[in-house]
Amino acid sequence: MAIIGARIDNRLLHGIVATSWAPDSGATRVMVIDDDVANDPQKKQAMKLGRPSGMAVSIITKETALTNFSNHKYDRQKVFIISQTPDVFLNLLEQGEKIDKLVLGGTLTFDNAIKVTKRAYIKPEQVDIYRAILDRGCKIVSQYVPQDDSVDVAKILNTKKAGA
Questions:
Q1: φ, ψ dihedrals at 7, nearest 5°
Q2: Are 157 and 127 in contact (CB under 8 A)?
Q3: Nearest Cα to Cα of residue 80 among 164, 5, 163
Q4: How many CB atoms lie within 10 A of CB 112?
Q5: 140 CB-side CA count, 13 A
Q6: Contact 140, 153 (CB under 8 A)
Q7: What is the C-alpha separation between 78 and 109, in angstroms, rounded?
Q8: In which element (H, E) is residue 80 found?
């Protein structure tokens, strides 16, 4: 089964993810893919405190995640992945993993960023990564909480392309 949920969120594993996104997905494992947190024992331990009830938690580097997926470590699990950046998801897609939908949640604001919603922005240098994800058949929507209406990120990127 493997990847059943994918989210970009600058806060990684936090309340909304632990109480809504991960449980609603039916995941058995929440995976935070972030080199900084994975390599910092204090940050890693603090983040593990946010573990959703009844789910395993992995906080690993991008390299470890790519290796583990290519070795089929999670084939019998339902994995919900959270990362701060889209490149993680593109790398997974490039190595043959299936991700049906990527949810762009909360991000930081950036200079010259493309505003997707009041809580989600795309850096100009990430536009090609998002387009490559779309080209691999993965739908990208922006939603902060599951109850929000979803915003089709492809439409926003296509608008920006036309206006560029």
A1: -145, 140
A2: yes
A3: 5
A4: 8
A5: 24
A6: yes
A7: 31
A8: strand 78-83
- Of 147, 48, 164, nearest to 103 (Cα)? 147
Position 105, amino acid: G
Residues β-bridged to residue 80: 5, 30
Alpha-helical regions (H) of 56-99: 62-70, 87-94
Q: What local confidence, expressed as pLDDT, does residue 37 receive?
A: 97
Give the pair of three-digit tokens for residue 121. 């922005």
In tens, the pLDDT along 99-136 reads 999 999 999 888 899 999 999 999 999 999 999 999 99
Instruction: Identify the pLDDT of residue 127.
Output: 95
Identify any residues that bridge with 3 across adjacent strands, giving them in sequence order: 79
Cα separation, 22 vs 82, in Å, equals 10
154: three-class secondary structure by DSSP: helix
Going 13 to 19 to 21 to 23, the CA torsion angle's sign is positive
pLDDT of the residue at 161: 56
Name the pTM for this structure.
0.93
pLDDT in the model for residue 162: 44
In our burial notation (b when 16+ CB lie closer than 10 A, e otherwise), range 72-87 reads: eebeebbbbbbbbbbe
